[in-house]
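Notebook B, p. 112. Complex prediction, attempt 2.
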Amino acid sequence: MGRFDDRSAIVTGGALGIGAGCARRLAADGASVLIVDINEEAGTNTVREIRASGGNAELMVGNVAETAIATGMVDNAMSRFGRLDLLIQNAYGGGADNIGSAVEVKPAAWQSGMDLLVGTLYLGAKYAVPAMEESGPDPNYIPAPWTGAGRRHGSPPTRNVGRIVNMASVHGILQAPRSLIYEAGKAAAIGLTRQMAIDFGPLGITVNAVAPGHIVTERGNAMWNEVGNDAGFRLFELHYPVRRTGEPEDIANAVGFLCSNEASFITGQVLTVDGGMTIQLQENIVMDSKDYIVANPDLRTHFDVGRGSSRF
Ligand SMILES: NC(=O)c1ccc[n+]([C@@H]2O[C@H](COP(=O)([O-])OP(=O)(O)OC[C@H]3O[C@@H](n4cnc5c(N)ncnc54)[C@H](O)[C@@H]3O)[C@@H](O)[C@H]2O)c1
C-alpha cells in the first residue's frame, strides 16, 4: 500500500521543477494529484509521465493568483477525486521587474509579486481547508495501539485530516541584496505558515513550510548551461557543506514526509532543505572561496549572464 493511497493532492506550479518533483513523489506513493500550472505543455508532459509510471494525475491550466483558479482547483480536485487531503503551494515565476531594492522596484511589480508569493498561499488555504474538513481524515489511518505510560485520557482529537505545505526558500531566512520582493514574500510565507498552523491545527490540518537551497530544475539547468562554465557551478556547489546543490527530488522527499501521517505532530515549522548551506558562518565561505577563484581565474557564474540580483 502507498502512504497516500485514497488521498488526493493539489500541487500548484507542478508542471516543472520542484513542483513536478512533488507531484511525481505524491503520485508514486498513491495520491491522486491535480497539477495547477500556467504552462500547459509542460503540465501535459508531467501528467503523461506520472500516468506512464502507474500514477493518477490531472492537469488544470491556470494562474493561481486568480481567485477563480483558486476556487476552481479545489472544486476540480473534489469533483475528480472525491476528496482533498494535501495542498502543496509551490507556484512562482518572477520576472526581471522583481529585482531591486525598495527604491528601484515599481509599485505594480511589488503588488503582483506579493499577490503571487503571498496572496496565492492565502487563497489556496481559504478554499482548500473547508474541502479538507469535508473530506475528513485519512480513510486508511489506523492508530497504533498505545503501550506506554502517559496516555492522554478521553477520546483523541481528529488527526490526519489535511496537510498544507508552502514552498518558502532560504531567501525567506537570509537576505540577498536587491531582492526586496522575493525575500519579503518568502519571509511572509513563513509567517503565514505559522499563523495557519495555529488556526487549522484544531481541525487536524497541519501547515508547514519547506525552505529549499539552490535546486537545479529544468530552468536552473538551462541557466547554468547558458553560463557555460563548469568551474562557476562548482564554486557554487562548494558553498554547500554536502558539496552539491539540490534536485527537485530532495525537496519532494521532504514534502512527502510532511504530508505523511508520521508528521501529524509537526506543524508551523520551516524545514530547511539546503545541504547545510545556511548553517555556516558566512565569513568562512568567502575566505574559503579565494583559493578556488585564484585557481580558476576564468570562471563565470549566473551573475555574469545577468541572472543574479546582487551586484554590489
Ligand atoms: N529552484 C530553486 O533553487 C528554489 C530555491 C528555493 C525556493 N524555490 C521555490 O520553489 C518553488 C518552485 O521553484 P522552481 O525552481 O521549481 O520553479 P520553476 O520555474 O522550475 O517551476 C515553477 C512552476 O510554476 C509555474 N507557475 C509560475 N507562475 C504560476 C502561476 N501564477 N500560476 C500557476 N503556475 C505558475 C511555472 O509554469 C512552473 O511550472 C517556488 O516557490 C520557488 O520560489 C526554488
